[in-house]
Amino acid sequence: MNTDITALEKPQYPVVDRNPPFTKVVGNFSVLDYLRSPPSPAFPSPSAIYQPGIKGPSMVTGGLIGLMGGFMYAYQNSAGRLMGFFPNEGEVASYQKRGGFSK
Questions:
Q1: What are phi and psi of 51, to 5 degrees?
Q2: Rounded distance between C-alpha atoms, residue 5 and residue 7, angstroms
Q3: What are phi and psi for residue 76, nearest 5 degrees?
Q4: Residue 71 and residue 82: Cα distance in Å, rounded?
Q5: Which pLDDT value is given to residue 57?
């Protein structure tokens, strides 16, 4: 099974890092990544309305799901910019100032 994403689609923008590590992707989060990925509001499920004992755990679970989804969305955008799948003018400029691109 081929798991190389570049085998399916070629990058349309300059590639900063073809296979960026987790720390590089998280360090590349922009302000827009944080603003676009707020956690979804933790609303209680319909069953929590009728059973008051599970309202709190339901809200915590909804909040955690929202946090994880927001993080994954920001991670996807950041990794896509580093790998050249999304517009990445800022990343290209900052990595050229640092001395070039990593292979």
A1: -120, 90
A2: 5
A3: -60, -45
A4: 17
A5: 79
By the 8 A CB rule, do 65 and 42 touch?
no
How far is it, in rounded angstroms, from Cα 101 to Cα 82?
10
Cα gap 59→48, rounded to integer Å? 9
Q: Which three-class secondary structure state does DSSP give residue 87?
A: coil
**In terms of Cα–Cα distance, which of 47, 45, 41, 91 is closest to 67?**
41
Q: Residue 71 corresponds to which tokens in the numbers above? A: 């993080």
**H helix intervals, 1-103:** 22-27, 31-36, 46-50, 55-83, 89-98
Using one digit for the tens of pLDDT, what is the confidence trace for 51-88? Answer: 667 777 777 787 788 888 889 999 999 999 999 999 99
| Pair of tokens at residue 69 | 């989804």
- Rounded to whole angstroms, how far apart are CA atoms 99 and 92? 11
CA distances from 17 to 12, 65, 79 (A): 14, 29, 9
